[in-house]
Amino acid sequence: MRSPMNAGELLVFIGMAAWFGSIGLALYAAASWMAFHFFITRYEEPRLARTFGAEYESYRNRVPRGL
């Protein structure tokens, strides 16, 4: 997993939503996931590819984005 911190945050949001039975927190978790995904795919990955080139491409091929 390339973004374990973001995954950890999402697990916390999902856990809180389940613990409190809150639809609002569940919606917040879904919105957070979409925001993380958009940021990672549109900004972070292209920037890392430009900065590190072939080394980052090799890393991307070995390590999946998600679980």
Describe this structure in words.
The chain is built from three helices and no strands. Helix content is 84%, strand content 0%. The protein has one domain (4-62). It has helices at residues 4-20, 23-52, 54-62. The protein is mainly α and 67 residues long.
Structural key phrases:
3 helices; elongated; 67 residues; 84% helix
Mean pLDDT: 95
Biggest sheet features = none
The H-and-E topology, N to C, reads as HHH
**Which structural class do the helices and strands define?**
mainly alpha
Helix content: over 70%
Low-confidence runs? none
Distance between the termini: 6 Å
Radius of gyration over alpha carbons? Answer: 15 Å
Which secondary structure elements does this structure contain, and how are they paired or packed?
Layout (H helix, E strand, L loop, with lengths): L3 H17 L2 H30 L1 H9 L5
Helix pairs in contact: 1-2, 2-3
Summarize this, please?
With 67 residues, this protein is mostly helical. It has one domain (4-62).
